[in-house]
Amino acid sequence: MSKPNQTLGEFIIENQSDFAYSSGELSRLINSIRLAAKVVNHEVNKAGLVDIVGAYGETNIQGEDQQKLDVYANNKFIQTLTNREIVCGIASEENDDFIRIEGHKGDHQNKYVVLIDPLDGSSNIDVNVSVGTIFSIYRRVTPIGTPVELEDFLQPGNNQVAAGYIIYGTSTMLVYTTGHGTNGFTLNPALGSWYLSHPDMKFPESGTIYSINEGNYVHFPQGVKDYIKYCQEEKDDRPYTSRYIGSMVSDIHRNMIKGGIFMYPKSSKANNGKLRLLYECNPMAFIVEQAGGKASDGFQRILNIKPTELHQRIPFFCGSKKMVEKAEEFMRVSEETKKDQAQELSFSNK
Ligand SMILES: O=P(O)(O)OC[C@H]1O[C@](O)(COP(=O)(O)O)[C@@H](O)[C@@H]1O
Ligand SMILES: [Mg+2]
Ligand SMILES: [Mg+2]
Fold it and tell me: Which residues participate in Mg(2+) 2 binding (predicted)?
């Protein structure tokens, strides 16, 4: 693949090798996501000019105040995917339940389901900080020709056929994988085309950036506290740099370019953390692993986890392989220490 800094002119995504791997229907599905992304990008870029910032006035199933852009992005992606008749079902962060899409003959002949976080980083919308969209695509597991069911969405992340994110930042990028590496495309807003600006992205094996909301420090498990202290020690290549945007797509995208680890662990305030397994952690884990990075809940690989609920949350450690492994080591040691202390306590009480 030629390097993007040569004068290669504008690439239209269909000519790129990445589509060489995807079936016609899957490529049409990713095309519709690209189309919806351009529409949402246009709205995000003029958010201050039109009445699209601020609260929508309702809360979603997460109990979060929906932002107008949350709802706008959600409607755009659902509308585009429904009209293009490529999916048999959609699950969204902004919808309590999944949506069945019958097809114009009502015959449920489409084979893919999409799970989506239409607007990630909602707290940043009104302050002009980059936000994103995250999507995850599976083949349905129930018979084609029948209405899609919950089990079609509750598949382990290993089953994903594609996953990606759009980052609406200083430039708009689409980064996605179909299981054959991770590629980044930058939108040329003048032409409305996507340029293969970051072919075959590789997550640096190590790094010096750690991203975590340290405002929750006192509520973190001991293993997370110990790892944060490790990052802050004056030793070897440390202290590391703390960078936290508050928009997971942006934090992970920066780390994918520069190296680093993003963590949203459980805490005494949120027993499973905040991020959702199905439409945030699984797609990001697939994308990051395909670039050589790592993603776990602190103990087990995210992509191996069998989901039980549509909106279930999971602790999330994601980024440079060596940094995630180091954080997991602190989590393991802390758990073992806790078990030893509990054992000693039970012996002394006998
Ligand atoms: O403000 P907090 O608690 O640090 O949470 C920030 C995290 O919440 C999120 O905004 C959650 O995503 P949504 O905006 O899609 O709800 C992540 O993008 C981000 O990493
Ligand atoms: Mg999100
Ligand atoms: Mg969201």
Answer: 117, 120, 280
CB atoms under 10 Å from CB of 234, counted, come to: 6
239 has a pLDDT exceeding 50: yes
CATH 3.30.540.10 domain position(s) in the chain? 13-198
ipTM for the predicted complex: 0.98
pLDDT mean over 242-254:
98
Question: What is the number of the ligand 1 atom nearest to the C-alpha of 275?
Answer: 11
**Any atom of ligand 1 within 6 Å of the Cβ of 120:** yes
**CATH superfamily ID and name for 13-198:** Fructose-1,6-Bisphosphatase, subunit A, domain 1 (3.30.540.10)
Is the CB–ligand 1 distance for residue 121 below 6 Å?
A: yes
Binding residues for Mg(2+): 93, 117, 119-120, 280
Q: Residues 276-282: what's their mean pLDDT? A: 98
Proportion of the chain above pLDDT 90, given as a percent: 75
Extract the tokens encoding 201.
């992205």
Binding residues for substrate: 120-123, 213, 244, 274
- Rounded distance between C-alpha atoms, residue 157 and residue 136, angstroms: 9
Give the tokens for residue 21. Answer: 């791997």
Report the alpha-carbon distance of residue 292 to residue 320 in Å, rounded: 8
- Position of tokens 């395909």? 290
Tens digit of pLDDT for each residue in 62-109? 777 777 888 999 999 999 999 888 899 999 999 999 999 987 788 888
Task: Tell me the best of 77, 120, 318 to mutate to test the pocket of ligand 1, counting ligand atoms within 8 Å of each CB and taking the most.
Answer: 120
User: What is the spatial distance between Cα 43 and Cα 49, in angstroms, rounded to a whole number?
Assistant: 9
Q: Which residue in this structure is represented by tokens 């930058």?
A: 186
Q: Please state whether beta strands 241-242 and 261-264 pair in parallel, antiparallel, or not at all (unpaired).
A: unpaired
Q: How far is the CA of 6 from the centre of ligand 1 (A)?
A: 37
